[in-house]
Amino acid sequence: MKPSSSQGYLYIIIAACLWSLIGLLMRTLHDEFGLDALTLAFLRASIAATISFTGLALFRRELLRVTRRDLGVFALYGLFGIALFYWTYTQAIIQTSVTLAVVLLYTAPAFVSLMAWRLWNEPLTARKLLALALAFGGCALVARAYDATALRLNWIGIGFGVGAGFTYALFTVFSKQVGKQFAPFTALTYELLFGAAFLAFVQTPSDFAPLLAQPTAWIFLLALVFGPTLGAIWFFTAGLRSVPASNASILATIEPVLASGIAFVALGERLEPLQLLGGAMVVGGVIGLNLGRAS
């Protein structure tokens, strides 16, 4: 049954709320249980892939049917949209802060616009150029580019944050392509499977020792999988059935605001006034890009 418009908007808000928990869960799993970024990325992808694949195999087996050629596309999808994205975003959260990482992640729509300009000849209108300027200018403020000392001390973490925005943009581009042919959970399942496979090559048995020594870690790990990874996708996809994509994208920009609030309360993270301005510019740029798409 197609959800009502109000229910659809509620679903989008729930998805954004679930996504906003990623930083807190990642920081907890790293700080309290000693899991590193590569292991967290692998566990997130592999457990989610197992659950999604099993669910489709039991209840919607027809959604698993793909051709050998399709698997090549999903392999690229999994490498850039899952393996590299999950790793860079987790590294950004660990090496900078939840707030800084999530704001840098929201440079992704700006990267998508630049890719669309080069790949599909989509015009760079005045609205888009202004939105791009806001997004990247805000990114510079959030990264404290005005403080050379701070920028020099934290340039690796900032690089991971921008890398997360870029790989998330690639994830979006791949989604646009495969979304024309496959159901959302078909794409999600195969991209997670390939992403987990690529990440498996850099794992060692000792990486998983914290899960055996501290079983409580599984609570946070499963919350990460069922909440921001699978649950958010389900709610966002369900919401899109009655909410225009541009409206949904704009509404989803509450994620960095919520994530920053959670980080402030739970982790004591704070931003300087210029960083707050930069965060507002990034979110404003995202909203501007989506308003331009809607017009």
Can you describe what's shown?
The protein has one domain. The protein is 78% helix and 0% strand. The protein has helices spanning 5-19, 22-31, 37-59, 68-95, 98-105, 108-119, 126-142, 148-153, 155-178, 184-200, 209-213, 217-239, 245-251, 254-267, 273-294.
Summarize the structure.
The protein has 295 residues and is an all-alpha fold. The chain has one domain. 78% of the residues lie in helices and 0% in strands.
Number of extended strands: 0
> In angstroms, what is the radius of gyration?
19 Å
- Give the uncertain stretches in residue-range form: none
Estimated structural class: mainly alpha
Strand content: under 5%
H and E string: HHHHHHHHHHHHHHH
Distance between the termini: 29 Å
Question: pLDDT average, as an integer?
Answer: 87
Q: Strand count, sense and closure of the main sheet?
A: none
Note the overall shape. Answer: globular
Number of domains: 1
SSE arrangement:
Blueprint: H1 5-19, H2 22-31, H3 37-59, H4 68-95, H5 98-105, H6 108-119, H7 126-142, H8 148-153, H9 155-178, H10 184-200, H11 209-213, H12 217-239, H13 245-251, H14 254-267, H15 273-294
Helix pairs in contact: 1-12, 1-14, 2-12, 3-4, 3-10, 3-12, 4-5, 4-9, 4-10, 5-9, 5-14, 6-9, 7-15, 13-15
For the structure shown, list the relevant keywords.
single chain, mainly alpha, 295 residues, globular
